[in-house]
Amino acid sequence: MINKQGVISGTLNNTATDSTQTIEGMVDKDHSVPHGTSRQGAAD
Q1: Core-most of 14, 27, 29, 34, by most CB within 10 Å?
Q2: Please, which residues bridge with residue 30 across strands?
Q3: How far apart are the first and last CA of the chain?
Q4: For position 42, what pLDDT does the model report?
Q5: Residue of 9, 7, 11 lying closest to 27 (CA atoms)
Q6: How many domains does the chain have?
Q7: Where is the composition biased (Polar residues) (predicted)?
Q8: What does the pLDDT look like over 2-43, one tens digit per residue?
Q9: Which residue range is the domain that position 3 belongs to?
Q10: Is residue 35 part of a domain?
């Protein structure tokens, strides 16, 4: 899940290893791409 403040949280289930990990972090707003646009050819 990503909320309006850019906070990412959730759970990753790896079925190959039968393990679970908690995921949390934030979107890097300086390097994010607006919905409906493409990063193809974008310079980083």
Answers
A1: 27
A2: none
A3: 26
A4: 56
A5: 7
A6: 1
A7: 1-23, 35-44
A8: 898 989 999 999 999 999 999 999 988 887 777 777 666 555
A9: 1-27
A10: no
The b/e string for 5-44 (b: 16+ C-beta within 10 A; e otherwise) is eeeeeeeeeeeeeeeeeeeeeeeeeeeeeeeeeeeeeeee
Q: Does residue 16 fall inside a structural domain?
A: yes
Whole-angstrom distance, CA of residue 19 vs CA of residue 4: 29
pTM: 0.50
Please give the pLDDT value at position 32. Answer: 74
Dist CA 41 CA 30 (whole Å): 17
Q: Is residue 33 part of a domain?
A: no
